């Protein structure tokens, strides 16, 4: 059974990846907005923002990486919506294919596409002057957190991809996710914010994730922040997966 599932998932992931490679503009578009924001904040606003660090680019890059992921997962919802409306799911139902492999193919495609977009953003950041004191273990930890965050947001994206009534509605869910880093420690210290905004910023998931990645990039101990970040990502992943699986089963019933 497991071999059947893995084989089906591999075949369907290959199909989904081929669709992505035929429209490379989706990956480019995903990276353009974060890169534009990075250029804007560093070269226009950066000089006026006091973060207590020597490089504002180093300070805000973790937030840009999360925005890149939030932008990228909207295409997962779009691809799912397109397949659902195109009758692809019904065709797969008539074939001896593991049902869950259809969703996992889209999820794995999202992971691959987002990792490429993240690599492009990091390369541009390095060209702009980003430097890191992180060792190999710290970089692996950063990649692991970004993968877990991408996985969580992708399963969230599956839900509107299966339930949306219009193409615009399928991808519109990502707007709040893209906006969330702006009300966190991603671009300015939370201590500069007014009371209620500061309280929200300090206790929402993006802040702990950003602080953890920032500490890892600078070679500093992440402390308890890393466990908070992992708990947020794992909690969102579990809830989103169970919800998406339930919606998917209802669609097929």
From TrEMBL:
<protein>
    <recommendedName>
        <fullName>Transport permease protein</fullName>
    </recommendedName>
</protein>
<dbReference type="InterPro" id="IPR000412">
    <property type="entry name" value="ABC_2_transport"/>
</dbReference>
<feature type="transmembrane region" description="Helical">
    <location>
        <begin position="170"/>
        <end position="188"/>
    </location>
</feature>
<feature type="transmembrane region" description="Helical">
    <location>
        <begin position="27"/>
        <end position="49"/>
    </location>
</feature>
<dbReference type="Pfam" id="PF01061">
    <property type="entry name" value="ABC2_membrane"/>
</dbReference>
<dbReference type="InterPro" id="IPR047817">
    <property type="entry name" value="ABC2_TM_bact-type"/>
</dbReference>
<feature type="domain" description="ABC transmembrane type-2">
    <location>
        <begin position="25"/>
        <end position="251"/>
    </location>
</feature>
<keyword id="KW-0472">Membrane</keyword>
<comment type="similarity">
    <text>Belongs to the ABC-2 integral membrane protein family.</text>
</comment>
<feature type="transmembrane region" description="Helical">
    <location>
        <begin position="61"/>
        <end position="81"/>
    </location>
</feature>
<dbReference type="InterPro" id="IPR051784">
    <property type="entry name" value="Nod_factor_ABC_transporter"/>
</dbReference>
<feature type="transmembrane region" description="Helical">
    <location>
        <begin position="226"/>
        <end position="244"/>
    </location>
</feature>
<keyword id="KW-0046">Antibiotic resistance</keyword>
<keyword id="KW-0812">Transmembrane</keyword>
<keyword id="KW-1133">Transmembrane helix</keyword>
<keyword id="KW-1003">Cell membrane</keyword>
<dbReference type="InterPro" id="IPR013525">
    <property type="entry name" value="ABC2_TM"/>
</dbReference>
<feature type="transmembrane region" description="Helical">
    <location>
        <begin position="136"/>
        <end position="158"/>
    </location>
</feature>
<keyword id="KW-0813">Transport</keyword>
<feature type="transmembrane region" description="Helical">
    <location>
        <begin position="102"/>
        <end position="130"/>
    </location>
</feature>
